[in-house]
Amino acid sequence: QVQLVESGGGLVQAGDSLRLSCAASGRTVSYTMAWFAQAPGKERDLVAAINWNGGSLYSDSVKGRFTISRDNAKNTVYLQMNSLKPEDTAVYYCAARFGSSTTTVGDYAYWGQGTQVTVSS
């Protein structure tokens, strides 16, 4: 039983930064947390994932620009987004699964409702 609520999206210019937050209700001990992005007309793809111990993985398109982190005591996961590009424009979803990190949408059992990130050129 995990409920997820995202926040922090908005309208920014290319090169700007945003910090997304995902607050979880319910215990998330041993859960992997992740961020996925879905642009209009495109599939939902993994942006970053972080396991309970802090191990992380990233999509190639965001490596070096985005950082995922979590505060287990607060049951919150973050996505620091730097050097934003127009192609980062998408709805960003927080997701959770019990166990290790994966890149597959279907492996995540819990989802937030998403927060819109729009980056202008």
Can you offer a commentary on this structure?
The protein has 121 residues and is mostly beta strands. Helix content is 0%, strand content 52%. It has no helices and 11 strands. The strands form 2 sheets. Strands 2, 4, 5, 6, 9, 10 and 11 form a 7-stranded mixed β-sheet that branches. It starts with a strand and ends with a strand. The relative contact order is 0.32.
Q: Roughly what fraction of the amino acids lie in strands?
A: over 45%
Shape: globular
How far apart lie the N and C ends? Answer: 40 Å
User: Major β-sheet, in short?
Assistant: 7 strands, mixed
Order of helices and strands: EEEEEEEEEEE
List how many beta strands DSSP finds: 11
Task: Outline the low-pLDDT stretches.
Answer: none
Radius of gyration: 13 Å
The number of helices is 0
User: Which structural category fits the helices and strands?
Assistant: mainly beta
Question: How helix-rich are the residues, as a percent range?
Answer: under 10%
Overall pLDDT score: 96
